[in-house]
Design a protein that fits this description.
Two copies of one chain form a homodimer.
Chain A: H1 27-36, H2 61-71, E1 76-77, H3 80-85, H4 92-99, E2 109-111, H5 116-129, E3 131-136, E4 155-160, E5 167-171, E6 176-180, H6 185-193, E7 197-198, H7 211-216, H8 224-227, H9 230-233, E8 234-241, E9 244-248, H10 261-264, E10 273-280, E11 282-283, E12 287-295, H11 298-310, E13 317-321, H12 323-332, H13 338-341, H14 343-350, E14 356-364, H15 366-382, E15 386-387, H16 391-398, H17 403-412, E16 415-425, H18 429-446, E17 452-457, E18 460-461, E19 464-474, H19 480-497, H20 516-535
Parallel strand pairs in A: 2-4, 3-4
Antiparallel strand pairs in A: 1-2, 5-6, 6-10, 7-11, 8-9, 8-10, 12-14, 12-15, 13-14, 13-17, 16-19, 17-19, 18-19
Helix pairs in contact in A: 2-5, 18-19
Chain lengths: 550, 550
């Protein structure tokens, strides 16, 4: 858990993760996609870092010196690579811009505070210096959450929390632990696992995302149906704001007024910097069992998921692909996938041809997993499900963090791949699914780039579920941003018009700000803005995100 | 569910509930208490309503006329009985004052709006008229939450929500329902039960408390370990504020910024009036099984509760009395109680003499209850528990809403009985128990009125539990308020000094306001006050509660 210098180098500045770990799309998958959506006629690699367009830093020498005095010389970085690496998150637009060499939204410097006190000191300095502050955890935002916008300030810094990377306390009796905000998912897990514990929080960004980022964006992970969303895990937190500290001691429950922690969970760096979080943890599971099931249709599968969830018999991981996603994933999968495991012929014989694949996972002691799995399986069978063995589950588990790497490959081939997600009441899941998928198809067909549009349910609640859409289309070369904008706008309008939330776990950032009024109403925004101005009166905190200007 | 005129008449103005339903303390219980804490030498009945000291209404004729124009003549009431009935909640101090004929905190009028639109209209009028508004649901607050304080206003009205008493919508697929804020617990249950559903929310105040009150005070019920606290049941809400509406559509989960609903849950009428809540509901249980268990000590029992809760095997109702509470309840109980069922001799033979009684309850289908009960029972036995049959559980269930009636009887005999509650992490439960019980004992011994101090755990969370204290002492005639104040202050100081929350489910009101800074910090208060001022700029909403003046 020792920290050895400013990090970020491991993450590619133009794409996801460590390029050396990238696994190219298999040739048959390339063929399928070329056939279904088309591809660029030649590869489109990112520009060289030397060719990236980066404006000169506007941080004054005095301001820089003041920051150096606060955190130390080696913790204020304004070299080209560091600024470019902190220019953007990992959304589709971010990558399109970075690959094309556009780093106009780069910060003027990157500052690495080493403690809560240093964070507070930097914020106070930045108020005086009129410098905007963009809190930066893993940098994995897909909604523009870490773009270095300066708002009305003279300059902007990225405040990289990588040095706040300790697991400072474990309360084994209460099953809680206190984490530094900059601790990355795998490091947090390693430290917990060594104590027989797990956080159980595995978003697709897990390999790079940070604890503070989870909390600041109201994250949900792939096993959150079982382990709970991050907001269900937060029992206390510490936050530095421009006017002082928020320090909420761990508490299992309280009736002492509005739940203040819920204001900071999902605050996306606009109120202050979450520096520490006390989270509920779980005993490390002895076994993890993942397996595949088939349903005759998305509707049948969704009813089955609702039934197990409302019976209190839900698996820890529960994902149901719609017909399109099932078909494409079976076509793309190699021998380890659902296709290899079960085969079209078998499904056809059993009446599940053209149906939907679900992945279920149970984690815990061997006895618990066996007991819980039996109960769920009985209900799933009753609801029309067909168990197709462990192979599809294990295939999913193996590739669960690989999606963002594939996106880089597709971008190189001139293919847009993007995801968006929502949630709604069970009674509205099917209608919302149809409305959003339809909106995406129409928008992209209208631009002459017909899309593959797929969806899965991946988070179950007693009253509803999430819907996660993936769409793939040939890029409009030269109009990539307009193309994306058209699809995104149409889909988001369809989401709010059809009773969905604008985001289930990606957060607001810049991309969803436009729909915040439909989400919380004008009076709700008024209340949130008033609170923002109380904590950040000069509006230095992550300007241009979450809330329109206060 | 028809509403037939302004209600409130059924609730005694000087005590709890319907006096005709009161069951006097059995003679042997009177003897025990006389022996243990002492009693007044003669009965102390409440004064006659004619003798209650009530100041003249300060509502101007113009203001009254404007309110009549907004809600209709028969829905603005300022007769003596109605004002006195809305003067206070049902806390110890409230009853001491009301019984003594002190209704100085009565509102100038009671207004009964018939719709959300009328609530909004009344608020806008009250802004113009400089009239304070105290939202009034069941009037069961035990922390001063409905005292008709006027703050800086010219007059004060109680806004009784009794007419907003409909169950407007049931979504049987999503298991949610939309309730008017004024709907009382039993009426909500009756309407749900007719549809095969239940809210599963049963605070001790259930027979009078309202849905809006549950939400506004962040309530927890006796079965909340199983069914969830009210904040876990809220999926959407509607609130009228002096500057306009908050209207949050039902949503299972979202990452769209801070969770706005969490600002209104627990807002205690200081931000606006919750007029409607969309809540998660449950299938009506086929069976309810309640039973008694014994542990050799409070510590052993607490460890057992922690273990079952952290194993995901908790009952829906889980209560563990400490040694003092067990001893007194066995002494007071008639033949149906734990004493009758099991007897000291049996416990002594098994080594549980002087131990602690727990009540566990499981609700659901017959098969589920049987399955879940077996699993919990196996764990409880492992942890040292001794099952003592259903009788103690059924005895508890029968008397679960009777506590407030007994208080009236004790007050008549010159005996103070008061409760307070907190919650903390599991690792701190035993220390907090000792600290708070000790503080109460010292404070009351120091005043020459040694107390019985008892406690139980009644709400389990994976990371901690609640502690609910009851203390009984002879009243200091003529200094009842000072006596209470001394005990309350000492106990609350002990709670916050020892890592507890100032309230687990009674809320803040006036009584706990002093400890809000320790709960949320000065910067947290600043944020909450800023939001309050944005929604209620002229501070008409429930002045003097929850937040110190903004």
């Amino acid at each position: 858990m020792d920290w050895s210098g400013p990090v970020g180098a491991e993450m590619s500045w133009w794409g996801w993760g460590d390029p050396s770990r990238r696994q190219p799309l298999p040739e048959h998958a390339v063929e399928i996609l070329r056939d279904r959506v088309g591809m660029a006629t030649q590869l489109r690699p990112p520009v060289a870092i030397e060719d990236v367009d980066l404006r000169p830093s506007t941080l004054s020498p005095d301001a820089r010196a003041a920051l150096v005095a606060a955190v130390g010389d080696c913790n204020v970085c304004d070299d080209r690579r560091m600024r470019i690496q902190h220019a953007a998150g990992k959304g589709y637009l971010d990558l399109v811009r970075q690959r094309a060499g556009d780093a106009h939204q780069a910060p003027d410097a990157v500052v690495f505070p080493g403690s809560h006190a240093e964070v507070l000191a930097v914020l106070k300095l930045c108020v005086d210096l009129r410098v905007a502050v963009v809190p930066f955890g893993g940098g994995t935002s897909v909604v523009g959450g870490v773009s270095a916008l300066r708002g009305g300030c003279l300059a902007v810094i990225a405040l990289d929390l990588a040095r706040l990377n300790s697991l400072t306390e474990i309360d084994d009796e209460s099953l809680t632990a206190v984490f530094g905000a900059g601790l990355r998912g795998p490091d947090a897990e390693a430290a917990l696992n060594a104590n027989g514990l797990t956080l159980g929080h595995f978003p697709q960004s897990y390999e790079y995302a940070s604890i503070g980022g989870y909390v600041a964006t109201r994250s949900a992970g792939q096993a959150s149906t079982g382990y709970g969303r991050i907001d269900e895990l937060v029992v206390g937190l510490k936050c530095a704001t421009p006017v002082g500290d928020i320090d909420l001691a761990p508490m299992p429950a309280s009736a002492a007024g509005p739940k203040l922690a819920e204001l900071f969970i999902g605050s996306e760096g606009t109120l202050g910097v979450i520096t520490q979080a006390a989270l509920r943890v779980h005993r490390l599971p002895e076994v993890k069992r993942y397996e595949g099931w088939f349903f005759r249709s998305f509707a049948e599968g969704a009813q089955a998921l609702r039934m197990v969830e409302q019976s209190g018999a839900s698996p820890d991981v529960a994902r149901l692909s719609d017909e399109e996603e099932t078909q494409l994933s079976m076509a793309l999968a190699g021998a380890g996938g659902a296709k290899g495991a079960v085969g079209r012929r078998y499904l056809g014989l059993r009446g599940y041809s053209g149906g939907c694949l679900a992945i279920f996972g149970w984690e815990g002691t061997r006895a618990e997993v066996s007991r819980r799995r039996s109960r769920t399986a009985a209900l799933l069978s009753q609801a029309g499900g067909l168990a197709v063995g462990r192979s599809p589950g294990e295939h999913w588990a193996k590739g669960r963090f690989a999606g963002p790497y594939l996106r880089d490959d597709l971008l190189e081939r001139g293919v847009m791949v993007e995801t968006l997600e929502t949630a709604t009441q069970w009674s509205n899941v099917m209608d919302l699914h149809v409305a959003v998928a339809g909106a995406l198809r129409s928008a992209l067909t209208a631009r002459g780039t017909p899309a593959l549009v797929m969806c899965h349910i991946s988070h179950l609640y007693p009253t509803g579920a999430s819907l996660y859409f993936t769409f793939i289309a040939r890029q409009e070369i030269g109009s990539e941003q307009e193309q994306w904008q058209a699809a995104k706008m149409t889909a988001c309008d369809a989401i709010v018009a059809n009773g969905g939330t604008i985001t289930h776990h990606h957060a607001i950032g810049t991309d969803h700000m436009r729909w915040m009024p439909s989400e919380v109403g004008e009076i709700g925004l008024l209340a949130l803005r008033a609170m923002k101005l109380a904590l950040d009166p000069t509006e230095i905190m992550n300007p241009g995100k979450l809330l329109k200007d206060a």
